[in-house]
Amino acid sequence: MRRQTFRQGGTAVEQALLLPVLIVMLMAGFEYGWTFFRLHQVESFARQAGRIAAATPVDDDPATVFSQEFEALMTGGGLGTRGLDVDAIVDGDSPERTLEVTVTLEWGGLTGLIPVPANLNVDYSTWLEDQSRTI
To answer: What is the C-alpha separation between 90 and 67, in angstroms, rounded?
Structure first.
């Protein structure tokens, strides 16, 4: 007579050991993916607000227009303005004026279980249109 061996217990132990590792890897992928998505969103909003500010009439301040447009885009995109710091500076003289922008958004991630950056930082620069020329 031959003895029968039961292997069901071995697969249960293997599953119990590997499942937590797989769940952590899945959470890390989701957390980093969400962080990079939000970073891309902030960069896109900065680019859109920069395009609007670049065509600002001479009487308006491009830095103020950028800040207002950027905050409106952030609110409309679901990110809000909590923990948002926008520094917009107009540099140079016409016709070579530029708008230099630094955006910092407090992030910290979704769950707090996976280490992600504490802040999302975006630097953006654009030439301002020369409105002193006449056609």
So the answer is: 12
Among 104, 128, 100, residue whose Cα is nearest residue 118: 104
Instruction: Name the pairing type of β-strands 119-127 and 84-91.
Output: unpaired
Q: How many Å apart are CA 31 and CA 111, to the nearest integer?
A: 8
Global model pTM greater than 0.85: no
Q: Give, for 135, the enclosing helix (H) or strand (E).
A: none
pLDDT digits (tens, 9 = 90+) for 48-92: 999 998 888 867 888 999 999 999 999 998 888 889 999 999 888
Task: Please provide the DSSP assignment of 66-111 as one string.
Answer: HHHHHHHHHHHTT--STTEEEEEEEES-TTS-EEEEEEEEE---SS
Tell me the two tokens of residue 106: 């407090």
